[in-house]
Design goal:
homodimer, 337 residues, alpha/beta, 434 Repressor (Amino-terminal Domain), Rossmann fold, 6-stranded parallel β-sheet, 4-stranded parallel β-sheet, 14 helices, elongated, DNA-binding
Amino acid sequence: MEIYTIRDVARKAGVAVSTVSRVLNGRPDVSEETRKKVMDVVEKCGFVQNRNARFLKHAKEPFAAIIVRGRRNMFLNDVAEQMIECAQGLKTPFLVKYIDEEADEFEAMRQLYADRRAGGFILLGSRVDERCEMVRALGVPCVFATVDASGSGLENASSVCIDDRAATRAMMDRLLDKGHTRVAVLGGCREGDDIFAHRYQGAMDSLRAHGIDYDPDEYVQTRFSLKGAYESIERIFEKRQDITAVLTMSDSMAIGVVRALRDRGLRVPQDVSVTGFDGTEMAGYYVPSIATVSQPTAEIARESVALLCEMLEGGEPRHVTVDFTMMEGESIAEAIR
Amino acid sequence: MEIYTIRDVARKAGVAVSTVSRVLNGRPDVSEETRKKVMDVVEKCGFVQNRNARFLKHAKEPFAAIIVRGRRNMFLNDVAEQMIECAQGLKTPFLVKYIDEEADEFEAMRQLYADRRAGGFILLGSRVDERCEMVRALGVPCVFATVDASGSGLENASSVCIDDRAATRAMMDRLLDKGHTRVAVLGGCREGDDIFAHRYQGAMDSLRAHGIDYDPDEYVQTRFSLKGAYESIERIFEKRQDITAVLTMSDSMAIGVVRALRDRGLRVPQDVSVTGFDGTEMAGYYVPSIATVSQPTAEIARESVALLCEMLEGGEPRHVTVDFTMMEGESIAEAIR
DNA sequence: AGGCATTCTGTAAACGTTTCCAATATCCGA
DNA sequence: TCGGATATTGGAAACGTTTACAGAATGCCT
């Protein structure tokens, strides 16, 4: 396929390049006749603008970037998707930047900034601490989504999240109220993951309030993902065989756990209860359906975009907490053992 | 954060811009002393190259793009991920372009071509027919991954896939050999989806070979996704309640089906058998685990990259078929009704 | 000391846009 | 008929790189 430049189009249409540019950008000061003439040529030869040249020229045009690390976390991907929907038609265009789990996030953001002066970022997922320095260095408005950044002390960061601690406490309460006392916790305190840390606190809050003596060494595992959860159960059972419930910090982990239990000949929920977190679609489709904490993805998405826009217009950063919903599921039952 | 240009760096380091450029691009013709001086400044002020300017300049540098539509299809996302792994360290850099399900793919490819002269594409997923015209118009080497494009007549397209028809036939054979005769088919002949069309043919091959009289109107549904499959079961059961097996064309569909059956009080596999397709991680973690056809993602990824490279170096297009593996699963049992 | 390689560095012209500014054409009222 | 306002259009200078090409410095050999 031939590549035409704006110059070629100008020549073919018998006008100046500046005129073609004006037509392409929908400027009002072009006569209808000229516009038509130019568009005809554009159509005919399938001209496509070169965005490198375009962005090189006016990198000033403000825009915002949504950073998503990893394609595995369906929950975060869903939130990101809803963010772009929310951002449709706003004055500042939003774009999503997917980066690898292991990629250098700072590098990616600096590149976005260098290339196009990204005016603001929405960062999904945890690890506020790690990201603080970066956000401070960039000095651009940022919104942490799904994690509380109110304690970060950053001047340029808002955040929106549920009360993870309270949610996990509520979930643990549910298990304990059903008579469970030996509850494994999966995902707790994973290194550098502040969301999981908050959730872990919540679980501990509940155990403490119920006066349960708890030895983390015996009950807590910190791996994640389907496979990680599966293997965690194997490890837990090396130490204790009398577990009657497993509280996990994501729906995938819960699924890994159910499979692992089932492979050990245990039934869920008759023998062991299991809980998830996030309220993903799969939690409802799994058999048994997973009791979970549903995060209001649409609201988180909407709030994140709104908070960023506020800051872009000079507003102060704010930290918003949205409500979660406890979802019933077939994966929980009364403790019988 | 301040934005520095290569010019600023040159000034601060007391050298010419061309020297900085050479250092940045690792050219050999720079003295060690100068290189160090420049790098110090780069480090100190956190200079980041502007890629727009870079790519604007030498758009000639050949590269290849992997196009992935939609983030929902985990199977395709996995394959894409493995492709980039395969492509690490090759002379031609590969990049992945994620586009929305509904987005204009042609537009995206033309943009890639206009911006950087993409020298080749790998297209994942079905819809060869729709894409033919586009591939022809672009005239750039393309590889269709996971779908057979040998019948397209394109001069510039290779393809790599399993024999979908044979795989589905084998799967249906398994069901029929277990005594099932009333088998619903989900995903069959979805409009414009050639992969599903091939699989549908395979299912019909098997039914025919087993001499089973089959009325598609009663047994076949063409929606997909978790939710679509769930609803398809509801529709099927409006017509027939005596189904003993459901053959689906993806693992997600199988999961939606199991959930739907279970919600009707039917057990899988005791009352109804269910089969999936693709061999995704979730199929193995589901309870019951889903009997499925495992596609060799690594091999498909590797072959796709290899085929594209071949064509980039002037080779003829080829159409490669790779082997699938039938995966056992708890979701199948003998027909008893 | 002069000539010639051998390194290294600087100048300037691209790449394809956008946009400021000036130039031209058109129209209106006096 | 003219002055001036108003619509259009064109010319040319950026934007931040890369890369020929030419130039300067150094070292070595005669």
